[in-house]
Write a structure and sequence with these properties.
2 copies of one chain form a homodimer.
Chain A lengths: L8 H8 L3 H9 L6 H14 L4 H11 L1 E8 L4 H15 L3 E8 L2 H14 L4 E5 L5 H9 L4 E4 L7 E4 L2 H14 L5 E6 L9 H14 L10 E4 L3 H12 L7 E4 L2 H13 L9 E6 L2 H5 L3 E5 L1 H17 L7 E3 L2 E4 L5
Parallel strand pairs in A: 1-2, 1-3, 3-4, 4-5, 5-11, 6-7, 6-8, 8-9, 9-10
Antiparallel strand pairs in A: 10-12
Chain B binds a DNA duplex through helix 2 and helix 4.
DNA sequence: AAAAAAAATGAAAGCACTTTCATTATAATT
DNA sequence: AATTATAATGAAAGTGCTTTCATTTTTTTT
């Protein structure tokens, strides 16, 4: 027997000198087994540390609960911060954290179909990923308590922010600072269906400008793939226009860093010649002295766990949709 | 089908017009099933209300399908990058990723005593955490294939770097750049036992300087808690000395950012007045244009998974100790 | 268009047991 | 002592799935 392979009923039978049938009887209906034989089989069970596999597995699962997190791949620091909140909230509890990373819509679909069926989880958190009606129904039907973060669905609990308001806040701040040639930069990597938070931030931003009678020209709305290098390039184009903007609202801090890099390379003074506002308030926003719309990334993870655990305890409780507040953090860049 | 008999995989297969193999794949590795077929099978599962029987699954499965990772808490971006490598390597496999975060030596001890006993992991990766002889013996005795990353133990496979050499490389680079008043800044958060990589980087750094006849004065060796704010303060003290260093080797990129911040606040030009070299080459090193010793953080995670999976497949294979190379990435700060 | 490679799917073996039917051993009855 | 009944045990079939190896289909390459 390989050292790491647990003993089976065959091993016990061999050890005790009986058939597996008799061992099975010993376990299930011992009164049908002769006394002396019973003793011999029990000794073998003890000696080998035998536990029927299904029971061993059930027993192993019983000790701790298991929370799954379906998360976009670790490329975005905001996901890491939410995950940190989740891990922190779970670390004091008797729960394991199981991570399923997603790098495509296909993969998300895959997970959402298999995770409710394999029966390994007590609860599930889905981070910043869209869930459709069929997916939501399956999760509910299989009784897997689920909390969504950032992308809500009416049938499942969620932790959200008001992205429209966030965009509006950025617009109002830049207007208050006296800016009139104002641009927006967001990312292109949006899911095919589902309103993306970045799109909502643009909606709010546009509304905020319109409320002050300021247009947001199409030339001042730029999208870049979610990488600093690509963002830098797009920002460089924007900043090299004949009449470039004097302020940019960047839909995520991560890409705001790309904008700052472009400014640095074009020797444009921030904030004197260019004001930059980001969104998220990532850990590294402080390093970059970035003015940004702060959302409680870590707290969103913690709160998701709190809601989930209460649903695991009382499955009949109604779903909850919680909106976390936004605040504007004024640093150096705007 | 008898009305009170729950549907089985055979019923689902018949209903969807596929084999039970394909249904099983849909449940366990859905990415290996064609999209249209997946939809059909899911519809059949939903229509029949099929739930796989736990006992039958337990019987049929050749393992737990789960890989555990014991990791320091997500405060350090380097752990996140290693974890990213792990997640990437596992995402194409049939394993779930279970995270156990560690925020104290007590917690580490607790995990290392309980995790091998639960029998619900196929393998374990331990990230940047010390493992003593008793821990290593327990892991081996219970047959839990284990790979260590960063902190090696002779009895377990590991993925490492040569931290001493890394320190030496930084020293040689700064000397080549003409620096003679050279300092070191590392972090104070070291485990109570086990030689920490940062200590080894200092050893190598010191050696590299000594080989050129340069002393590293005690006043030029500073330690700060692993936060940018604390690091900034310690760096500010260092930089405010009567004869401050003209170059600093910072043992981690994360803290190097704190040093750069201190320089900025003291209006010290980098690299003209102060050269800064970091270690790790974190994602954000590029943003900060940080010259740094590059280690393959993502790759260390991927390689750990590769070694682990080969040990799960063939437990009798001998342990492997792999050292990943280091390269110096020359950017703006030095 | 043909050949090669990759993806999707299926047949059959296997898992770790339980259960049914058969065989053997022992005890009770005549 | 022989026969019958009961108890103990085993062989083989069955469970509801997973997995391995093979086959078919589709896609890509030449």
């Amino acid at each position: 027997m390989p050292p790491n392979k647990p003993p089976t009923i065959y091993d016990v039978a061999r050890h005790a000198g009986v058939s597996i049938t008799t061992v099975s009887r010993m376990i299930n209906t011992p009164d049908k087994v002769n006394g002396d034989t019973r003793v011999r089989i029990l000794a073998a069970i003890d000696a080998l540390g035998f536990v029927p596999k299904a029971e061993a597995r059930a027993r192993a699962m019983r000790g701790t609960g298991r929370i799954g997190v379906i998360s976009p791949f670790f490329t975005a620091p905001s996901f890491v911060q939410r995950l940190r909140g989740i891990a922190e909230a779970l670390s004091a509890k008797k729960f394991e954290l199981v991570i399923y990373t997603v790098d495509s819509a296909e993969r998300l679909k895959s997970l959402l179909s298999s995770v409710p069926l394999t029966g390994n989880l007590d609860g599930l958190i889905i981070l910043s990923l869209p869930v459709d009606d069929a997916d939501a129904r399956r999760l509910v039907d299989h009784g897997l308590p689920t909390v969504l973060v950032e992308f809500p669905h009416p049938n499942l609990s969620s932790v959200e922010i008001d992205d429209v308001m966030g965009g509006r806040m950025a617009a109002q701040y830049l207007l208050k600072k006296g800016h009139r040639r104002i641009a927006f930069l967001g990312d292109t990597d949006l899911p095919e269906y589902s309103l993306h938070p970045v799109s909502q931030r643009l909606v709010g931003f546009r509304q905020g400008l319109q409320e002050a009678g300021i247009e947001l020209p199409d030339a001042f709305v730029r999208l870049a793939p979610y990488s600093q290098e690509q963002t830098r390039k797009v920002a460089a184009e924007l900043l090299s226009m004949p009449q470039p903007p004097t302020a940019i609202f960047v839909a995520t801090d991560f890409q705001a860093l790309g904008v700052l890099k472009a400014a640095r390379q074009l020797k444009i003074q921030v904030p004197e010649q260019l004001a930059v506002v980001g969104f998220d308030d990532l850990d590294l926003a402080e390093y970059a002295d970035l003015t940004t719309i702060h959302q409680h990334l870590d707290e969103s993870g913690r709160l998701a766990v709190e809601i989930l655990l209460s649903q695991i305890e009382s499955p009949s409780r109604p779903t909850r949709h919680v909106k976390l507040p936004l605040t504007l953090i004024e640093r150096q860049t705007a």
